[in-house]
User: Fold this.
Amino acid sequence: NAGVTQTPKFQVLKTGQSMTLQCAQDMNHNSMYWYRQDPGMGLRLIYYSASEGTTDKGEVPNGYNVSRLNKREFSLRLESAAPSQTSVYFCASTIPLGDQPQHFGDGTRLSIL
Amino acid sequence: RKEVEQDPGPFNVPEGATVAFNCTYSNSASQSFFWYRQDCRKEPKLLMSVYSSGNEDGRFTAQLNRASQYISLLIRDSKLSDSATYLCVVHQTDSWGKLQFGAGTQVVVTP
Assistant:
């Protein structure tokens, strides 16, 4: 049972570098999400994809772009990384019905120097 | 004001004791409620959903008070393995599965 798989698990970047975080789910879920988690704060939604072919901004979208490649995959791209983007990034997926929980990947720990 | 607020703790609990803590939410349109557990910055995992009538899952009891807009979690007979951060999570009716997360309440169970 893979569930939600994120790659990479760890990454160190220099300011200005770009990279893409990958996320894939094998649960046939329609909706997928990208969050960041910083110390002392709850998970904050960066972008989400309610269904294949759609993406929308969340609470903190600046500096990020996303692609919903197909139903399984939802990637997050940092075009020009900044130290403020140092965080733990989680991908999640769900069937978007009211009482259905989200399933999370293991997270990507990203440091930007 | 944050949409979901939690006491960050930590709540230091002797093994075998009972601990309870609350979470308040600001949006009255909130429809579904959950408690997630997170260990040491690992991924959050669903602990339990919270139903209007209150619900129990083993040693864990969740309550919802819509009038006062809070939910609670009670842990009985605490185990060392219950040490974690407990995230209060709220889903609003008009959102596409989008959840609002509290910052979490840390529980530390001591021998």
